[in-house]
Design a protein that fits this description.
The protein is an alpha/beta fold and 248 residues long. The protein has a single domain (7-239), classed as Alpha-Beta Barrel (TIM Barrel), CATH 3.20.20.10. The chain is 44% helix and 16% strand. It has an 8-stranded parallel beta sheet. The longest helix is centred in the N-terminal third of the chain and has 22 residues, at 7-28. The radius of gyration is 18 Å and the shape is globular. The model has no long low-confidence stretch (mean pLDDT 96). It binds pyridoxal-5'-phosphate (PLP). Pyridoxal-5'-phosphate (PLP) is lined by residues 37, 39, 60, 81, 177, 217-219, 233-237. Pyridoxal-5'-phosphate (PLP) binds next to β8 and α10. The modification N6-(pyridoxal phosphate)lysine is found at residue 39.
Length: 248
Protein backbone atom coordinates (compact mmCIF):
# COMPACT_ATOMS: atom_id res chain seq x y z
CA UNK A 1 0.00 0.00 0.00
CA UNK A 2 1.73 3.16 -1.19
CA UNK A 3 1.51 6.34 0.86
CA UNK A 4 2.90 8.53 -1.93
CA UNK A 5 0.56 11.20 -3.27
CA UNK A 6 0.81 13.81 -5.98
CA UNK A 7 0.82 17.51 -5.14
CA UNK A 8 -2.23 17.86 -7.33
CA UNK A 9 -4.26 15.31 -5.38
CA UNK A 10 -3.04 16.70 -2.05
CA UNK A 11 -4.04 20.21 -3.10
CA UNK A 12 -7.53 19.09 -4.01
CA UNK A 13 -8.04 17.13 -0.77
CA UNK A 14 -6.71 19.91 1.42
CA UNK A 15 -8.85 22.54 -0.28
CA UNK A 16 -11.97 20.42 0.22
CA UNK A 17 -11.17 19.49 3.79
CA UNK A 18 -10.22 23.04 4.79
CA UNK A 19 -13.45 24.39 3.41
CA UNK A 20 -15.50 21.87 5.42
CA UNK A 21 -13.33 22.40 8.49
CA UNK A 22 -13.86 26.17 8.36
CA UNK A 23 -17.63 25.74 8.11
CA UNK A 24 -17.64 23.28 10.99
CA UNK A 25 -15.46 25.57 13.05
CA UNK A 26 -17.55 28.67 12.42
CA UNK A 27 -20.89 26.99 12.99
CA UNK A 28 -19.81 25.36 16.24
CA UNK A 29 -17.36 27.91 17.69
CA UNK A 30 -14.67 25.28 17.35
CA UNK A 31 -16.56 22.74 19.45
CA UNK A 32 -17.36 20.15 16.77
CA UNK A 33 -14.83 17.63 15.49
CA UNK A 34 -14.52 16.91 11.78
CA UNK A 35 -13.99 13.21 11.06
CA UNK A 36 -12.78 12.63 7.51
CA UNK A 37 -14.50 9.48 6.22
CA UNK A 38 -11.94 7.73 4.04
CA UNK A 39 -13.63 4.40 3.32
CA UNK A 40 -12.76 2.91 -0.09
CA UNK A 41 -10.19 5.68 -0.64
CA UNK A 42 -6.45 5.00 -0.81
CA UNK A 43 -4.16 5.30 2.19
CA UNK A 44 -2.20 7.94 0.27
CA UNK A 45 -5.24 10.26 0.46
CA UNK A 46 -5.21 9.89 4.23
CA UNK A 47 -1.46 10.51 4.37
CA UNK A 48 -1.92 13.74 2.39
CA UNK A 49 -4.50 15.07 4.86
CA UNK A 50 -2.44 13.81 7.79
CA UNK A 51 0.53 15.82 6.52
CA UNK A 52 -1.75 18.88 6.43
CA UNK A 53 -2.63 18.35 10.11
CA UNK A 54 -5.76 16.20 10.03
CA UNK A 55 -5.94 13.41 12.62
CA UNK A 56 -9.53 12.10 12.86
CA UNK A 57 -10.41 9.56 10.15
CA UNK A 58 -13.44 7.30 9.84
CA UNK A 59 -13.55 3.84 8.25
CA UNK A 60 -16.42 1.41 7.66
CA UNK A 61 -14.84 -1.97 6.96
CA UNK A 62 -12.82 -3.87 9.55
CA UNK A 63 -10.28 -5.43 7.19
CA UNK A 64 -9.73 -2.21 5.27
CA UNK A 65 -9.16 -0.29 8.50
CA UNK A 66 -6.68 -2.89 9.77
CA UNK A 67 -4.67 -2.69 6.53
CA UNK A 68 -4.61 1.10 6.56
CA UNK A 69 -3.82 1.40 10.27
CA UNK A 70 -0.82 -0.89 9.78
CA UNK A 71 0.92 1.47 7.38
CA UNK A 72 -0.32 4.92 8.40
CA UNK A 73 0.99 7.03 11.31
CA UNK A 74 0.25 5.73 14.79
CA UNK A 75 -1.15 8.98 16.12
CA UNK A 76 -4.13 8.95 13.77
CA UNK A 77 -7.38 8.82 15.72
CA UNK A 78 -9.38 6.12 13.98
CA UNK A 79 -13.16 6.12 14.18
CA UNK A 80 -14.85 2.87 13.24
CA UNK A 81 -18.24 3.91 11.85
CA UNK A 82 -19.37 0.87 9.88
CA UNK A 83 -21.83 -1.86 10.64
CA UNK A 84 -20.10 -4.15 13.14
CA UNK A 85 -20.55 -7.88 13.55
CA UNK A 86 -19.90 -9.35 16.98
CA UNK A 87 -17.25 -11.69 15.61
CA UNK A 88 -15.27 -8.75 14.16
CA UNK A 89 -14.94 -6.90 17.47
CA UNK A 90 -11.92 -9.01 18.30
CA UNK A 91 -10.12 -8.09 15.06
CA UNK A 92 -10.62 -4.39 15.75
CA UNK A 93 -9.44 -4.68 19.35
CA UNK A 94 -6.37 -6.76 18.61
CA UNK A 95 -4.99 -5.06 15.55
CA UNK A 96 -5.48 -1.34 16.00
CA UNK A 97 -3.55 0.24 18.86
CA UNK A 98 -4.76 3.71 17.91
CA UNK A 99 -8.45 2.82 17.66
CA UNK A 100 -9.94 6.04 19.04
CA UNK A 101 -13.63 5.20 19.05
CA UNK A 102 -15.98 2.52 17.80
CA UNK A 103 -19.13 4.52 17.03
CA UNK A 104 -21.46 1.68 16.13
CA UNK A 105 -21.93 -0.34 19.30
CA UNK A 106 -25.57 -1.39 19.48
CA UNK A 107 -25.65 -4.56 21.57
CA UNK A 108 -24.34 -5.66 24.97
CA UNK A 109 -22.63 -8.61 23.26
CA UNK A 110 -20.56 -6.33 21.04
CA UNK A 111 -19.60 -4.07 23.93
CA UNK A 112 -18.46 -7.02 26.03
CA UNK A 113 -16.56 -8.63 23.17
CA UNK A 114 -14.73 -5.40 22.41
CA UNK A 115 -13.97 -4.90 26.08
CA UNK A 116 -12.78 -8.44 26.77
CA UNK A 117 -10.49 -8.65 23.77
CA UNK A 118 -9.05 -5.20 24.49
CA UNK A 119 -8.44 -6.16 28.09
CA UNK A 120 -6.41 -9.12 26.86
CA UNK A 121 -4.32 -6.89 24.56
CA UNK A 122 -3.69 -4.37 27.33
CA UNK A 123 -2.46 -7.12 29.62
CA UNK A 124 -0.20 -8.59 26.91
CA UNK A 125 1.17 -5.32 25.57
CA UNK A 126 0.38 -2.39 27.87
CA UNK A 127 2.84 0.00 26.26
CA UNK A 128 0.98 -0.10 22.93
CA UNK A 129 -2.64 -0.76 23.83
CA UNK A 130 -5.06 1.36 25.83
CA UNK A 131 -8.78 1.75 26.40
CA UNK A 132 -11.10 2.19 23.44
CA UNK A 133 -13.77 4.85 23.16
CA UNK A 134 -17.27 3.79 22.20
CA UNK A 135 -20.43 5.47 21.05
CA UNK A 136 -23.75 3.73 21.13
CA UNK A 137 -25.52 3.85 17.80
CA UNK A 138 -29.13 4.92 18.12
CA UNK A 139 -31.81 4.17 15.57
CA UNK A 140 -33.55 7.53 15.45
CA UNK A 141 -35.56 6.95 12.29
CA UNK A 142 -37.44 3.84 13.35
CA UNK A 143 -36.61 2.25 9.99
CA UNK A 144 -36.27 -1.47 10.53
CA UNK A 145 -33.33 -1.96 8.22
CA UNK A 146 -31.25 0.64 10.10
CA UNK A 147 -28.99 -0.71 12.79
CA UNK A 148 -28.81 0.89 16.18
CA UNK A 149 -30.47 0.63 19.54
CA UNK A 150 -33.98 1.85 20.12
CA UNK A 151 -34.14 4.78 22.54
CA UNK A 152 -35.59 3.62 25.86
CA UNK A 153 -34.83 0.61 28.04
CA UNK A 154 -32.66 -1.17 25.46
CA UNK A 155 -30.38 1.83 25.12
CA UNK A 156 -30.25 2.54 28.84
CA UNK A 157 -29.35 -1.05 29.64
CA UNK A 158 -26.52 -1.07 27.09
CA UNK A 159 -25.06 2.17 28.42
CA UNK A 160 -25.29 0.84 31.97
CA UNK A 161 -23.28 -2.24 30.99
CA UNK A 162 -20.63 -0.13 29.24
CA UNK A 163 -20.27 2.18 32.23
CA UNK A 164 -20.35 -0.48 34.93
CA UNK A 165 -18.93 -3.65 33.42
CA UNK A 166 -16.56 -2.62 30.64
CA UNK A 167 -13.46 -1.23 32.27
CA UNK A 168 -11.47 -1.15 29.02
CA UNK A 169 -14.05 0.96 27.20
CA UNK A 170 -14.63 4.69 27.57
CA UNK A 171 -18.18 5.82 26.91
CA UNK A 172 -17.98 8.81 24.55
CA UNK A 173 -21.64 9.23 23.68
CA UNK A 174 -24.23 8.58 20.97
CA UNK A 175 -24.19 8.25 17.20
CA UNK A 176 -26.89 8.15 14.56
CA UNK A 177 -27.16 7.91 10.79
CA UNK A 178 -29.95 10.08 9.45
CA UNK A 179 -32.48 8.54 7.11
CA UNK A 180 -32.44 9.64 3.49
CA UNK A 181 -35.79 11.35 3.80
CA UNK A 182 -35.00 13.40 6.88
CA UNK A 183 -31.59 14.41 5.51
CA UNK A 184 -33.17 15.74 2.35
CA UNK A 185 -35.89 17.87 3.91
CA UNK A 186 -35.69 21.51 4.88
CA UNK A 187 -35.59 22.77 8.44
CA UNK A 188 -35.28 20.87 11.70
CA UNK A 189 -34.34 17.24 11.29
CA UNK A 190 -36.56 15.25 13.69
CA UNK A 191 -34.00 12.45 13.97
CA UNK A 192 -31.28 14.87 15.05
CA UNK A 193 -33.73 16.44 17.52
CA UNK A 194 -34.44 13.00 18.93
CA UNK A 195 -30.73 12.24 19.40
CA UNK A 196 -30.23 15.58 21.17
CA UNK A 197 -33.14 14.70 23.50
CA UNK A 198 -31.74 11.25 24.15
CA UNK A 199 -28.41 12.87 25.01
CA UNK A 200 -30.03 14.96 27.74
CA UNK A 201 -31.82 11.90 29.07
CA UNK A 202 -28.59 9.87 29.21
CA UNK A 203 -26.64 12.68 30.90
CA UNK A 204 -29.23 13.00 33.62
CA UNK A 205 -29.94 9.30 34.08
CA UNK A 206 -26.27 8.36 34.46
CA UNK A 207 -25.13 11.56 36.10
CA UNK A 208 -22.56 12.38 33.41
CA UNK A 209 -21.05 15.83 32.91
CA UNK A 210 -21.29 15.82 29.11
CA UNK A 211 -21.23 13.36 26.20
CA UNK A 212 -20.56 13.49 22.46
CA UNK A 213 -23.15 13.21 19.74
CA UNK A 214 -21.93 12.06 16.36
CA UNK A 215 -24.38 13.02 13.61
CA UNK A 216 -24.18 14.68 10.21
CA UNK A 217 -22.54 13.67 6.92
CA UNK A 218 -21.69 15.53 3.68
CA UNK A 219 -25.33 16.27 2.92
CA UNK A 220 -26.54 17.32 6.35
CA UNK A 221 -23.64 18.28 8.62
CA UNK A 222 -24.60 21.97 8.71
CA UNK A 223 -28.06 21.14 10.03
CA UNK A 224 -26.59 18.56 12.41
CA UNK A 225 -24.27 21.13 14.00
CA UNK A 226 -27.17 23.58 14.38
CA UNK A 227 -28.91 20.81 16.29
CA UNK A 228 -25.99 20.12 18.59
CA UNK A 229 -23.70 17.64 16.84
CA UNK A 230 -20.24 17.48 18.40
CA UNK A 231 -18.74 15.22 15.71
CA UNK A 232 -19.54 15.21 12.00
CA UNK A 233 -18.52 12.43 9.61
CA UNK A 234 -17.79 13.82 6.15
CA UNK A 235 -16.63 11.66 3.26
CA UNK A 236 -17.59 12.47 -0.30
CA UNK A 237 -17.36 16.28 0.06
CA UNK A 238 -13.69 15.82 0.92
CA UNK A 239 -12.56 12.77 -1.06
CA UNK A 240 -15.01 12.86 -3.96
CA UNK A 241 -17.50 10.19 -4.83
CA UNK A 242 -16.67 6.60 -3.93
CA UNK A 243 -16.32 3.57 -6.16
CA UNK A 244 -19.15 1.04 -5.74
CA UNK A 245 -18.21 -1.07 -2.72
CA UNK A 246 -17.75 -4.39 -4.41
CA UNK A 247 -16.71 -7.12 -2.08
CA UNK A 248 -18.15 -5.66 1.09
C1 LIG B 1 -20.01 6.78 4.43
C2 LIG B 1 -20.45 7.30 5.75
C3 LIG B 1 -20.34 8.67 6.06
C4 LIG B 1 -19.87 9.71 5.06
O1 LIG B 1 -20.85 9.91 4.11
P1 LIG B 1 -20.72 11.09 3.00
O2 LIG B 1 -22.10 11.28 2.55
O3 LIG B 1 -19.81 10.57 1.96
O4 LIG B 1 -20.17 12.28 3.69
C5 LIG B 1 -20.71 9.08 7.33
N1 LIG B 1 -21.18 8.20 8.25
C6 LIG B 1 -21.29 6.90 7.99
C7 LIG B 1 -21.81 6.00 9.04
C8 LIG B 1 -20.95 6.41 6.73
O5 LIG B 1 -21.11 5.10 6.46
Amino acid sequence: MSLAYTQERAGELIENANSIKNKVHNLSNGKTTLVCVSKLKPASDIQALYDAGYRHFGENYVQELIEKAKVLPKDIKWHFIGGLQTNKCKDLSKNITNLHVVETIDTIKKAKKLNDTRKQMISEDPSNFGKVGVCVQVNTSGEEQKSGCQPGDELDELIKVILEECDCLEFHGLMTIGSYGASHSEGLNPEFSLLAEVKEHVISKFNLSDIQISMGMSGDFVQAIKQGSTSVRVGSSIFGSRPPNNGH
